[in-house]
Amino acid sequence: MRHRTQVAIIGAGPAGMFLAHMLAMEGIDALVIERRDRAYVEERVRAGVLEQGTVELMRRLGLSDRLERDGLVHGGTNVVLDGRLFRIDMTALTGGATVTVYGQQEVMRDLFDAAESRGLPIVWNASDVALSGLDGAQPQVAWRQDGVEGRVDCDFVVGCDGYHGVSRAAIPADVLRTFERVYPFGWLGLLADVPPADHELIYANHERGFALASMRSRTRSRYYIQCALDEDVADWSDDRFWDELCLRLGDETAAKVTRGPSFEKSVAPLRSFVAEPMRWGRLFLAGDAAHIVPPTGAKGMNLAVSDVTMLGAALTEHYRERSDAGIDHYSARALARVWKAERFSWWFTSVTHRFPTMDGFDRRIQMAELDYLRGSLAAQRTLAENYVGLPLEAA
Ligand code: RFL
Ligand code: PHB
């Protein structure tokens, strides 16, 4: 095992792997250290919608062959309020922007295949990962793999190890500040090999709760319904799921839903979370290690990508131009964008879900908000510019 690298990356999720490819392209030496194996990381069913910036990064890194072929480009999205559907023309409202439906599983496959052919080093099945020396000049990362100890000295450590990782905990408690909202519901998701109800996504607010019609391809549908946090998947037969979904989507959309046997069903909790700062000494945090959004705005993976886009540029500046301006500003720059995505995801969740504490006033405010969205191009434009992804820097 190698004993020295320039950048040690903890975690081989989207944040870690995009960063590894960016650094490799700049000739910066990096080692990725991952707790699980490739199949585990690649098979997790998660994100489905890529912002334009994420698509552009995949192109820049030479990872977009399958994306160009199989990705579904969407110029609009749809909202249903108590059965009535309206469309938001995102492309028209943003001067040409789109999003692309291409599953996180496909993104990971592209990242791992290219890592293999480009010879990017990844340590799989690394347990007991421990960071040290982060406030000095020469940090170290240690781990165990198949009972054997590994260790690497490096210039920087990047914590891309997700919400449950070890990196964030390495920041001293008197430095780290965290901000959190836990929502009193979850999403029950289903995958089935049936054609999607529509060629675009449909977000529905129904008095029984939220529902979302999404997809992975022209032949694979991804549907979600809001559920209780302690919902037991075993209580949800496919028939029960389809019935509840169709009820919430309303007659017009339900008529276009093709039912079929599911091959995946799971419950995900919803949370908003931000840790500040995103840098301490020679440790940087990126992606879910630093922040979580509820999935309603499809921002999670895209935020991981915007973090590492900024960090990759900052590390390149450090090695190429011997300037630390980028790494010194990373935390503030990243957090400015993170908080706007937090705001959007929180807002979109708030106006589309049923909250247990809601009274008649809250419900009518929610309906007024979506009715306003239906009737106002200004409101639609606000949604559209957030949905397709804000620029890396505020204008
Ligand atoms: P990840 O993907 O959690 O990867 C972290 C990696 O670190 C490893 N790890 C460790 N490695 C070494 N040592 C340790 N101690 C370690 N601890 C953990 C883990 O094994 C893992 O491989 O974080 P990253 O890279 O920051 O990426 C974040 C995204 O995966 C996440 O934000 C998205 O999946 C969120 N998300 C969505 N994002 C979107 O942009 N668009 C969407 O449409 C979207 N839909 C979703 C979502 C997430 C969902 N769930 C299940 C949470 C829909 C759902 C239902
Ligand atoms: C998905 O397809 O998994 C998906 C799409 C849009 C969201 C969240 C999840 O807002």
Q: What ligands are attached or bound here?
A: 8-demethyl-8-dimethylamino-flavin-adenine-dinucleotide, P-hydroxybenzoic acid
Rg, alpha carbons: 21 Å
Q: Give the terminus-to-terminus CA distance.
A: 45 Å
CATH topology of the largest domain: FAD/NAD(P)-binding domain
Q: How many separate structural domains?
A: 2
Strand content: 25-35%
The percent of residues in helical segments reads 25-40%
**Quantity of strands, as a count:** 20
User: What is the number of helices?
Assistant: 12
Which architecture of the largest domain would the CATH scheme give at its second level? 3-Layer(bba) Sandwich
Mean pLDDT: 97
Strand order of the largest sheet: 6-5-14-15-16-13-17-20
Instruction: Specify the CATH homologous superfamily of the largest domain.
Output: FAD/NAD(P)-binding domain
CATH class of the largest domain: Alpha Beta
| Structure classification | alpha+beta
Low-confidence stretches: none
How would the blueprint of this fold be written?
Elements: E1 7-10, H1 14-25, E2 30-33, H2 38-43, E3 49-50, H3 52-60, H4 65-70, E4 72-74, E5 77-81, E6 84-88, H5 90-94, E7 99-101, H6 104-118, E8 122-123, E9 127-132, E10 140-145, E11 148-153, E12 156-159, E13 177-192, E14 202-206, E15 209-217, E16 220-227, H7 238-249, H8 251-254, E17 262-276, E18 279-280, E19 283-285, E20 291-292, H9 300-321, H10 325-352, H11 360-375, H12 377-387
Parallel strand pairs: 1-2, 1-12, 2-8, 5-14, 12-19
Antiparallel strand pairs: 3-7, 4-7, 5-6, 9-10, 10-11, 13-16, 13-17, 14-15, 15-16, 17-20, 18-19
Bound molecules: 8-demethyl-8-dimethylamino-flavin-adenine-dinucleotide (RFL) and P-hydroxybenzoic acid.
